[in-house]
Structures are given as C-alpha cells and as structure tokens.
Design brief:
With 373 residues, this protein is an alpha+beta fold. The chain folds into 2 domains: 2-122, no CATH class; 165-372, Restriction Endonuclease (3-Layer(aba) Sandwich). The chain has 9 helices and 14 strands.
Length: 373
C-alpha cells in the first residue's frame, strides 16, 4: 500500500509527496508521481509522470535516460506493466480522481492510501491508532483478534501474555503500596484479592487454588435466621477431584504478638500471641468446622458443588494475616514458625510472604516472555 500526501504548491498546482508504487524489486522500482492542476473554473485535474529508479549506495536514484519528447518518428519506445502493477496504477488513479473532488484539498493536506484489497494493509505510527480504532468502532474488534491469531498465532499469544503480565505488574505495585501506606481495611483488601485471584495461585501444600465464592455463608443460623457465619473466600483445589479450602483475610498490620507497655512475655522465651491473632485463627477454624457440618450438607450446596467434582472432606483453611516484619527477635521467629508449622488443617501466610510470592509469579512470567522474544 502506498500513502499519498497532497500539498498546495501554488494556487493552481497541487503536488503529491508520495507516489503510487507500481512495482518494486530489491534493485529497481517504478512508480507514478501524481499531481493536480487547477483550471480557471477551479476544477482539479489529475496529471503525473512515470519514474524508474535504481538502488545505489546512496539510496534510490532516477535512472538516466531521455525524454519522450526527444523520440523521433519511427522510433519504438515501450514498457510493460504486469497485472499487479496495472492494478496498483488503476486503483491509485481512481482514488486520486475522487481526491480531486474534495473541495478543501487546497487548504489542507490530504492523505490517500492506495493498495489492492487482497494485500496486507500497511500503516505507520501516525495512522496505526486511528486504523485500529476504526476497526473496533465498526465492530471488527473480535474479527481482528481472530484473524491475527490465525495469521500470527505466536504474535497473538505473545501480545495476550504481555497484557496479562502488564496488568499483574500493576497489581503487585498496588499491593506493595497498600502495604506500605496501611490505608486499606479488611473489606478493601477483600476487593483487591477478589480482583486479583491469581495471587493466591499456589496455596496450601503447593496446590493450585481457584475461587469458588466470595463472602460465602458457612451456616450457623438459628431458628430466627440469625447467627449466620460468613467468611471472606471459599476456594477449592484444582484436579480431577477438587477439595474446598476456606480463606480468611485480616490486615498486614494486624498484630501477631502482644504489645504491652512493658513488653511482657507469657514466660521466659515465650512471647504471648495477640488476642486478635488468636481470635482470627479460631474464627477460620470454626468456620471450616461449620461449613463441613452444615453448609456443605445442604441440598442446594451439594447439587451445586458435586456435579463440579468439588467435595468437602475435613476442609483446610488459609489465614492471611500480619507481616513477618513483626518477627524482630529470635524468640518471636521461633515461636511463630513452630506454631504455624504444627497446625493441622490451617495454614498462616503473612502479607509480605503473599506479596513476594506474587512477585515470584511475575518474575516467572517475565522470564518466559523474555525467552519468547
């Protein structure tokens, strides 16, 4: 495709910066260089000349020759245009004739793109965004991606991966900033994790977790309908058989250990856990028990989950709580790690551990993208 840009030279003459390319080889090219002349009535008329060039060390140069005006009677001069060159010429001429009808062509620069319909469309940085917007506005968005995937499957896949990677990098930055500013409450953290479910990725025992339900009801209602137990997220492992996992989230600044004025310990070498930490752990364990005995046994939940091969068998739980930055002494580190390592069905993950796992996932994706380049 050839881009033709017109510009006024005088009141009666309009030039074209770019020609109609007829045919091109690595060493030669032929093109038609059009222009417009304006008569006394203001009508524009198409004119132009055919140019033959050769590739030199300094670039394209006009081939030396002679003017047709110098051809004498009886001399034979001819050159041939193949089918593609003739089609390019005729298509270009038809567009230029339509261009001549534009009333404002004198006052502005007009751009015309000329090509065969079955040729690949070319566009530069200036026209790329407008071209893509035009396709989308005309309803060709889905067709554009399907055609790209069919013609260039590797390019389409690489673009999709890069878009996912870009969004996830932005989410990790948002995650880190929110941890530093400590501005979000538990519901806001819940919304963030709901929007970025990939962060949970590898959950308990390196099993991949998928979200089943946010703000799930686990049971616990009495005769009046009060007392229902709710949790932040209900997840399940991935496999042919899937098993329910309960997820509870607190805040990154939630205290793990007591912070008394005197920094008292429960006993020598044993720092005391904070009440909020103990309550959060109790909450997620009670919720798991309630779901196992009540929520999972209801007919509605069974009918929904079992056809998806999702089962509840001693459901495990995941508590997102606090930060390891609080483990500022050997006693605290020992106490925390030994304690959570001994828990049977509940895993405790701190916010900074979750953040670094998200960064690891991003790093793996970036490495894969670099290898594909």
């Amino acid at each position: 495709m050839t881009e033709i840009r017109t510009h006024p030279i005088t009141d009666s003459f309009i030039g074209c910066e770019n020609p109609i390319k007829l045919e091109t080889t690595p060493r030669t090219r032929r093109f038609f260089l059009p222009s417009f002349s304006k008569d006394e009535q203001g009508n524009l008329h198409l004119r132009g000349k055919l140019v033959y060039q050769k590739k030199a060390s300094t670039g394209w140069v006009d081939e030396e020759g002679f003017s047709l005006r110098d051809v004498k009677a009886g001399d034979a001069i001819s050159f041939e245009l193949d089918t593609e060159a003739m089609n390019n010429f005729l298509n270009g001429i038809s567009v230029l004739i339509e261009t001549a009808k534009i009333p404002s062509i004198k006052e502005r620069s007009a751009k015309i793109n000329v090509a065969l319909r079955n040729k690949v469309i070319e566009f530069d940085d200036e026209t790329r965004k407008l071209t893509i917007e035009s396709l989308i506005n005309k309803g060709y968005g889905s067709n554009f991606w399907s055609e790209l995937a069919a013609l260039k499957p590797d390019e389409a896949e690489k673009f999709a991966d890069n878009q996912i990677l870009s969004r996830r990098k932005a989410s990790v930055r948002e995650f880190e900033e929110a941890m530093q500013e400590l501005a979000w409450n538990e519901p806001e953290w819940g919304k963030f994790f709901d929007k970025n479910r990939w962060i949970f990725g590898l959950g308990l025992r390196h099993q991949f977790l998928s979200q089943l339900q946010g703000q799930a009801h686990y049971g616990g209602t009495d005769l009046t309908g009060r007392g229902t137990q709710k949790g932040d997220f209900l997840h399940h492992t991935e496999g042919f058989a899937r098993f329910v996992v309960l997820v509870e989230i607190k805040r990154p600044d939630s205290e793990i250990f007591q912070t008394t004025a005197k920094g008292q310990k429960y006993r020598n070498g044993v720092p005391g856990f904070d009440v909020e930490f103990a309550n959060a752990l109790s909450q997620v364990q009670v919720n798991a028990r309630t779901w196992e005995l009540e929520g999972s046994q209801t007919e509605a939940n069974k009918n929904k989950l079992e056809p998806q091969r999702i089962y509840t068998i001693q459901p495990r739980s995941l508590l997102i709580y606090g930060s390891t930055s609080q483990l500022d002494t050997l006693e605290k580190r020992n106490c925390f790690e030994i304690f959570r390592g001994q828990l049977k069905n509940t895993e405790i993950v701190t916010y900074d551990e979750l953040l670094n796992r998200a960064k690891f996932i991003i790093g793996e994706m970036s490495g894969t993208a670099d290898q594909a380049e």
